[in-house]
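Retry 2 of 3 after timeout on previous attempt. Resubmitting structure tokens to design endpoint.
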């Protein structure tokens, strides 16, 4: 939290409009230099509430500036399966998951209704519809051809669009650590 009093700004995340706090001119200047265009850095105060995607959310579940859900999980087996179908495989960071799991079959995560990692129980919020950001090299910001979306569209498409990974909603707060065991509950 910046030392100076933060100024409230109205922001938009997808179709949601909410208030955020501006991190100040020094942060804005730093971000502008790195991004290459004028921008402001904001953060979400405790007083702001953004609800999880209404189709899949339970009443009152919230998310911050993340896409539509608090977390995204992808298995290494799913990425390996995708990579085997592509001429030029892409790294996991293209999908920006919060949680990466090993030791399961490709796309097993799609069917996990509830799971526990560490002392947190998660509910599956549905398959994650993928956007064009997956076509951007995360280290260089260079856009590739339409991959991996083109390949995914040949076998991972539903009414939401091209899908890869599962959205998760924690049922209660807790701690998750690297190497925690995953327990499938439902």
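Retry 2 succeeded. Sequence:
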């Amino acid at each position: 939290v910046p030392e100076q009093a933060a100024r409230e700004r109205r922001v938009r995340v997808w179709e949601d409009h909410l208030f955020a706090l501006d991190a100040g001119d020094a942060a804005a200047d730093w971000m502008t230099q790195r991004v290459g265009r004028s921008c402001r850095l904001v953060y979400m105060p405790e007083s702001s509430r953004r609800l999880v995607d209404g189709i899949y959310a339970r009443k009152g579940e919230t998310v911050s500036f993340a896409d539509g859900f608090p977390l995204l999980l992808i298995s290494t087996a799913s990425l390996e399966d995708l990579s085997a179908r592509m001429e030029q495989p892409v790294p996991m960071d293209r999908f920006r998951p919060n949680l990466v799991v090993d030791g399961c079959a490709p796309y097993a995560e799609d069917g996990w209704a509830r799971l526990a990692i560490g002392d947190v129980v998660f509910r599956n919020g549905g398959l994650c519809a993928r956007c064009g950001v997956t076509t951007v090299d995360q280290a260089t910001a260079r856009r590739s051809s339409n991959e991996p979306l083109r390949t995914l569209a040949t076998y991972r498409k539903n009414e939401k669009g091209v899908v890869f990974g599962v959205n998760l909603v924690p049922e209660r707060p807790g701690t998750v650590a690297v190497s925690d065991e995953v327990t499938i509950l439902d």
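Attempt log closed. The mean pLDDT is 90.
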